[in-house]
Every structure is written in structure tokens, then in C-alpha cells.
Amino acid sequence: MSKKVLIITYYWPPAGGPGVQRWLKFVKYLPQFDVEPIVYIPENSNYPLVDDSLESEIPKGITILKQPIKEPYRLAKLFSKKSSKTISKGIIPEEKEQSLLEKFMLFVRGNFFIPDARVGWVKPSVKFLSEYIQTENIETIITTGPPHSLHLIGLQLKNRLNIKWLADFRDPWTTIGYHKALKLTKWSANKHKLLEKRVLNTADRIIVTSEVTKNEFEELTNKPIEVITNGYDDESTVDFQMDEKFTLAHIGSLLSKRNPENLWEVLAELINEDADFSKDFQLNLVGAVSENVKNSLKKSTLSDYVNEVGYVSHKESIVFQKKSQLLLLIEIDSEDTQCIIPGKLFEYMISNRPIIALGPNGSDVEKIIKETNTGQYFYYSDYGSLKNTILQYYDAYKNKGIQSYPIGLQKYHRKALTQSLSKLL
């Protein structure tokens, strides 16, 4: 008989973006390991990104439970539709660029909705799920955050029913980069830390996506912590033709602080020094781009070389990954982001295109790229080595074409990762 597991998640198709992929894929493969997943989601959620194509990937026959949720961002739209949508996507303007309304919205978000704007869903969810769990004889629940308010659902269900509970952290809680931008009072900051510690010390097991987060959480709890990264899945065949231009493509959101000015300077210098490079080069930005990044590109005289595509469906993003000459991965240059492993990294890795990544020293991303031979990793202080690497790729592009020689990718397949999860269950 299959083991029933209740998965409590906010992001689920038609939600777009990276947050939905992790548990959509786990749910796809869990039945192959004798686990029956039951998914609990909001009924009327206000997703910042929507990708209707992902609904076709929901496995048939899966039990999906829904309960209404009150979304504060709907109310915020009455004041400023643009600001509420931008902040809900995680694109927070630099302090000096924030309007008074944006500063007010961030203060309200950080201090009146702890741990996040979905906290109002906790109480009705606990009431509904308490009855469902007992009726259906479910022995194990999984909560996944962010939003970390979903862990409070797990916390209360654990205290009520003494059920086995696994808390999955796709991102850290109080050390994630945007947390500092929420204009928290001292009381609010302490409240976040208290809730984080309570969750970490009450759950039966913690799941994280990086070694850095594991090390961080081990300072807060003695509960067992397992690293299960994100990964890649078998994608349906897509029709594409390699870009004729020497394209460098970034897929995903480019936040204000995710702005590698050293890279823009390198590209501008190569354009000025080499007429052929100037004629061949194109920077494709596929996803939301902050005004801060746009201004930096303009300042570096790169605007004429930028193809700003905007948000596309997951299937369309796969096409961009496969047809681009090089793939760009950028993370904020901060100790707080050492633990961040973007979900798109793993899809980049199987696209057969080399990766140029920029991020902080000590990042888990750096280790994975070097281990799998899927590209080159640079720090924000690098300049000469970054320029030389791009030139080497450009020479390869002009001659026999750019090649990629990845190794050891199999352990990052979604099925292999789901097998690791099934062992915890």
C-alpha cells in the first residue's frame, strides 16, 4: 500500500517562475517510489507570474485540495498596481530609488505581515487540514517555503496532531537578501527569528537546497537536515535553431542588486575594441529587468545590443536556453546569497550551452559548475579573466562553434532527487 503524504505549497500551476517547479516534479515522481502525494494549495491565489503551460504537467489522478486565501497584494493594487506587482515578484528598488508609497508598502509588508503576506491563510488551513488528516489517516506532512507562513501551518498541525512533519526550505528565512529591505522594526526582526527557530526545532526533519543553508541552520537546531537540491527533468523535444549572433542570454529576473557592472564594462570594452564582436554580439534578457539594471546597461552604452524579451513561459525559456551561444547566471554579490542555487542552473546545465556565472565567493553554485564542467564562475571583482573567457568563447563561435562537455549530471535529475526524498519518508 502506498504511503500518503500531504504536501502544503503555495506555488502550483498556473503559477510561473522557479518556485513551482520543485514540488511539481516531486509530485510527478513520488508514486514511482510507493508514495501517494496529496497537494494542498490556495484556491484563488494572486501569483506574480503565471504560466498556463505548466498545468499540462500536473500528473493525472493526483488529489489536489484547495482552500480560499485572502491576498493583501490585491488590496495594495488599489494604491499602486505597478509597485505591488513589482514587490510581489521580489524586485525591490534600491533605497534611494524607492518612492514614499513603496517605502510605506515595504514597511507594512515587513511589520504587519509576519512572516509574509500569506500569513492569513494559516488559521483556516489548520482548521481544514486537521479534520482532513484525521479522516484520511495521513501520517506525514510536508510544508515548503517561501512563503514561510506555510511552515506555521506545519507547526500548528504538528502541535495539534503530533504528525510527522518535514519542513522544506527552498530559500533561507531571515538571511535571504530581500529580508533586510523590509524595513523591520527590532520587534519584527526578533519575531521572524523566533518563528524561524521554532519551526526548525519542531519539525521532525529539515530539507534545504544547499550546503550553505544546511550549515546555517545547524547553528539553530539539532534536528536532522538533508540537502536535496533542485534539478532538471526530461524536457519534451523543442524545435530551435542556434542563434546566428554571438548571444549571451540571461533567463529569469534581474533584480536591482543583481547587477554585474564589471560584466557590462567588459562587454562595452570588447565592443569598442573589436568591430566584428560589435557586429556579432547580442545580450538577451528573458524575464523581468529592474530599472537599476537598465540604467547600468544604458550607462555602459549597451542599450543598442540588448534584446529585452520579457517574461516567457517555461517551454519558451527552454528554447532560449538551447539556442543561445552562452548562458548568463547572475547572483547578488553578498555573503547572504552564497546559499542561493537558482533552479534554472540545472536546466542550464543540460542545455549543452556553456554557463558564465557571476556571484559571491564561497557559493554553492561555484562548486556545482566546477564539479559538472558546465561553465565558468567569476566574482564581481574579476575583470581580466572574465574578458579573456568571453573572447575565447567568441573565437570558438567564429571557428568550429562553441561546445560544452558536462559530466556527472545524472544525480541532479528530478527522479534521482525524488528517490532521495522518498527515503526520508
UniProtKB/TrEMBL annotation:
Record key words, sorted: Transferase
Pfam families: Glyco_transf_4
Keyword Nucleotide-binding among record annotations: no
Domain named Glycosyltransferase subfamily 4-like N-terminal: residues: 108-235
Annotated InterPro entries: Glyco_trans_4-like_N (IPR028098)
Official protein name in the record: Glycosyltransferase family 4 protein
Source organism of this protein record: Tamlana crocina
